[in-house]
Structure formats: structure tokens, C-alpha cells
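Sample entry (67 residues):
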Amino acid sequence: MAKYRKKYFIGAIPVVCGLLILMGCAVNPVTGQQELTLMPEGMEIKLGQEKYAPSRQMRGGTGWTPS
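Predicted structure, serialized as C-alpha cells:
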């Protein structure tokens, strides 16, 4: 009996992985094509807002003063 359960479990792994990949697909607003997304849009926006100013400052942008 345990032999059959293991066989079905191993067979279900690719199906579950495929479904998870399809659930992570979103439409790229620039190209209009579907692509895999690994983080939610809100999280991506928040990360960009946090990192934008320090990144700009490191490249000599706003708030940079020579030492």
C-alpha cells in the first residue's frame, strides 16, 4: 500500500510545480506578454521606493556632497 502512495506522490510533484508556476504569471504592462513574477507588485513598488534615494545618492544625484 505504501508503495502506491509514494508513486502517486512523486507523480504529483510536477503537476503541483506547474500549477505554482502558472499562478505566478502576470502580464507585463510594457510588452503585453505573460511572464513569471516572483514577488507581488506592491512589494516590488515598496522596494523601489526604499532603494531609489540611496541609489541615486551613491551615483552623485540628489543629496550628494563631495568629501
